[in-house]
Amino acid sequence: MNSNHKPVAVVIGATSKWQSDGRNTRLVHGKALDDSHLPIGVRWGVGGAIAQKFAQEGFFVVLTTRNAANASKLGKAIKEEGGESMIVELDLVSSDSIANAFAHIREQAGNTEVLVYNAGYLEGRDLPP
């Protein structure tokens, strides 16, 4: 996928604001949040903005998410801005998922040069061991 051999930036939690189709937002705020009128860089929060910035700076960006559909609009926005990205499903509570995701990233994009750990944590849940 990274045919131009660009440096690779992996953003963990690029779409964490929208995991589970906004379920976490409803849990925290008690209602669904509709901010579809805002630009994508704002809607996707810090992780999405970081991913877009790395793409603008010439990196091949890997968007990791528990559900690939959550990152499709962000990936499309990066492409429309002239950047390159790929989406990789990753569940941070599973060591197998982590190993498989990074093997796939290495195979498809190359070695990771920058890793941004932006995964969020929802208050009230136990952290994994």
Q: Tally the helices: what do you get?
A: 5
Quick one: CATH superfamily?
Answer: NAD(P)-binding Rossmann-like Domain
- Determine the CATH topology: Rossmann fold
**CATH architecture call:** 3-Layer(aba) Sandwich
Give the helices and strands as they follow along the chain.
EHHHEHEHE
Describe the strand arrangement of the main beta sheet, using strand numbers.
3-2-1-4
Indicate the mean pLDDT. Answer: 80
* Rg from Cα: 15 Å
Percent strand equals: 15-25%
Structural summary, described in words:
The chain is built from 5 helices and 4 strands. The chain has a single domain (8-117), classed as NAD(P)-binding Rossmann-like Domain (Rossmann fold). With 129 residues, the chain is of the alpha/beta class. It is globular. Strands 3-2-1-4 form a 4-stranded parallel β-sheet, sandwiched between helices. The protein is 36% helix and 18% strand. The protein has helices at 23-29, 40-43, 45-56, 72-80, 95-108; strands spanning 8-12, 60-65, 84-89, 112-117.
Brief write-up:
This protein is 36% helix and 18% strand. It has 129 residues and is an alpha/beta fold.
What structural keywords apply?
129 residues; alpha/beta; Rossmann fold; 5 helices; 18% strand; globular
